[in-house]
Amino acid sequence: MLSKNHSGRGCSHSRSGKMRVHARAGFTLVELVLVLLVAVILSGLAIPSLSGLSRAKANLTATQVRSIFVYAQDWAAGTGRPTWVGYTSDTQTISAFQASADNLAFASRLALQDPLSRSSMSVDLSDLFRKKDLIQAEYGVTRLTLKFDSTGTPVDSTDKPLENDVLIPLANGVGVRIRAGTGLVSIL
After folding, report:
1. CATH number, domain containing residue 114
2. Are 175 and 169 within 8 A, CB to CB?
3. For residue 85, is it within any domain?
4. DSSP string, 99-147
5. Which terminus of the chain, N or C, has fewer Cβ atoms within 10 Å?
6. CA distances from 159 to 135, 153, 165 (A)
7. What is the full per-residue pLDDT of the chain (188 aa) written as tens digits?
8. Which range of residues forms the domain containing residue 105?
């Protein structure tokens, strides 16, 4: 037997004669507000961590770019032959090259190989430069090449030691700097 109590909830009598109250299915306004509040708090915690991912990716790329510069510099000093590190906006890559044993000119350069993977040393920057090519914006050129002479010193196109530092901007304020004179390569 089903009857209504004063609160509007359905009631039934059990075999023992006691009345049981059945609650309606659904959520109260307080419960809904609490769930929304928890969702807002959790999304507030997730957004800063997502922006940290893009900075971490920029730092990883900067480490790879720095490694290319350091390896090219060490290779030049170790072999006594010049090396070049170049950037092209067409492919948005930074690559390292070495002078051939027969001809030390830039035109006869060979790709410098990673000693572990035996693939050419290059870093793809297209993921970081989706919106804007920062190197092209910084220097106003589509190609940028830095040469290390036979002693590992960074030089300009006329083989004179650099007078100014070279800055390679990547993303999120992260970049790589090559110091004039010393050739020290650091991540900013």
Report:
1. 3.55.40.10
2. yes
3. yes
4. --SS--SGGG-EEPBPTTT-SB-EEE-TTTTSS--HHHHHHS-SEEEEE
5. N
6. 22, 10, 15
7. 445 555 555 555 556 666 666 556 778 888 888 998 888 887 777 666 666 677 788 888 899 999 999 999 999 999 999 999 988 888 888 999 998 777 767 667 889 988 888 888 999 888 776 656 677 667 766 778 899 999 999 998 788 998 999 888 887 788 899 999 889 999 98
8. 57-187
Q: Which two tokens stand for residue 50?
A: 């997502």
Residues in the chain: 188
Rounded-to-integer distance, Cα 24 and Cα 16, Å:
23
Alpha-carbon gap, residue 60 to 50, rounded angstroms: 15
CA distance 124 to 173: 18
